[in-house]
Design a protein that fits this description.
This protein has 9 helices and 8 strands. By secondary structure, the protein is of the alpha/beta class. The two termini are 26 Å apart. The protein has 2 domains: 117 residues, no CATH class; 105 residues, Arc Repressor Mutant, subunit A, CATH 1.10.10. It is globular.
Length: 250
């Protein structure tokens, strides 16, 4: 792992943008680049949720305490991580209820490995919640249009919309791009997925005669893909799909 001559102050926030920086000196430019790439990897684990890494030499801690508090106070999201790297201390403290992790310069590699594990665990648990929330949102919208969870095909339709929202590169054809994954998820065949979705939509239109007109369709006969597309657009207007979508980019 890179060894620094000095570590002044470098503060990284959402999307790895430099919010505040005093030059961190490395032995070479290549080491500097490699080190920054490692930091970027950490941020990829938390996607676009605001997080930060603050690097500070212990000798600057007293004079920089105001900046630390301002930085921590500007990020209020629950579960956020703030990392502090210092040269000569390995204790942990909390500022404004945010986690501050310390490590010695000689322990930097171990620190980064632990940080990656912490962030991975955070990502997995947080994104699990996001997935559940997104599926619940889909269910609520479907129920508004009288597509009940009791209907055969409801789960297939819910999963199809979920994947349509999250897998942008799989929108050309439901049959070839999405149905196979849905079928695999429910241990069934592709034909069964499509057939039961059609049944669900047919039953919904019987229960709700104005189903399609209420969704601004031009006629009362629409394809499954058109229906899925319209529902997806409605959900995207009220739900942040980006966090879950990044799971499918991995």
């Amino acid at each position: 792992m890179n060894k620094f001559d000095t570590c002044d102050v470098a503060l990284y926030t959402k999307n790895c943008q430099f919010a505040y920086e005093f030059r961190t000196k490395c032995h070479s430019k290549q080491e500097d680049i490699e080190y920054l790439n490692t930091l970027h990897d950490l941020f990829r684990f938390v996607f676009n949720k605001p997080s930060g890494i603050l690097f500070i030499d212990m000798k600057y801690f007293g004079s920089m305490s105001k900046i630390i508090n301002e930085f921590c106070g500007s990020h209020r999201n629950k579960g956020e991580f703030v990392f502090v790297y210092v040269c000569d201390n390995n204790t942990g403290i909390k500022i404004n209820n945010y986690n501050i992790f310390w490590c010695k310069q000689s322990q930097m590699l171990d620190f980064l490995l632990k940080a990656k594990i912490l962030l991975k665990n955070f990502r997995d648990s947080y994104c699990g919640v996001c997935i559940n929330n997104l599926k619940m949102s889909i269910s609520k919208v479907l129920e508004v249009y009288k597509i009940s969870p009791k209907l055969i095909g409801f789960e297939y339709l819910q999963e199809t919309i979920f994947r349509y929202l999250c897998q942008l590169d799989c929108r050309k054809s439901l049959n070839s791009d999405i149905y196979p994954d849905v079928a695999k998820e429910f241990d069934t065949c592709i034909n069964n997925v499509e057939k039961n979705i059609r049944k669900a939509l047919k039953k919904a239109s019987e229960n709700y005669p104005d189903l399609y007109s209420s969704m601004s369709f031009k006629n009362n006969h629409v394809t499954i893909k058109t229906f899925v597309s319209v529902i997806s657009e409605e959900i995207e207007r009220s739900v942040n799909v980006g966090l879950v979508r990044k799971l499918f980019e991995k």
